[in-house]
């Protein structure tokens, strides 16, 4: 009886999701180790180390969820037509965001991408669709300018 219970728990683990996030965390850790082996200077590790630490923390949270929740608790809406269309819309918006970064500026492209993400995610209040993307883009651009000594194109900021 005890062996069957253990086997049932092992089957309920979301192995595919766990393997994916573990592989991504391993890549982030390998990249961090490689970057630290090259140089420990702040300029070398400014974005790499905090990002790798964030990835590892997120891995721990997601892995714990994979172990507790299991594969049978996957959301049913993920396979439906509306869910697929939302996913495709976000992929298209991200592609346009990447293409627009250099052409229209990081600030405008980021504000438009965040607005598109909010809209696709279901936000319909006009005030939120205007103010949040503008505030988010301004905070990110000004934060990047404070941290990164390299110029990047912007249209407004």
TrEMBL record:
This is Tripartite tricarboxylate transporter TctB family protein. The keyword tRNA processing does not apply. The chain crosses the membrane at residues 12-33, 45-67, 88-121, 127-148. The keyword Membrane applies. It comes from the Bacteria. It comes from Elioraea tepida. Keywords: Membrane, Transmembrane, Transmembrane helix. Residues 26-153 form the DUF1468 domain. InterPro entries: DUF1468.
